[in-house]
Hints:
mainly alpha
Amino acid sequence: MSGNKITPGRIESRLARLLHGGTGVASVVIGAGLLLSLFNQPALLPIAIPLVTAGIVLFILLPILRVMVMFTTYLKERDYQFAAVAAVVLVILFAGCAVGILSK
């Protein structure tokens, strides 16, 4: 049973890969949007602004994805105490998003 356990180092490595890859993708998306906006063409501007926005949304989603990965990992490991903490953090994050969206 102990051979199936994911060590803390492996969890951190998995999370680091997620954050590193997500940061790279978000940066490329924002860079593409900014590059398109430099051409100053009316046809490209409707594409450029949503690209930059999508990149920013990806940056905002990265911490949420991190907590989701931690939650699922702790559930798989049957570490219910840490899974409960991760679940509470997810509820707080989603509640904050809901308040932000509904307060417009």
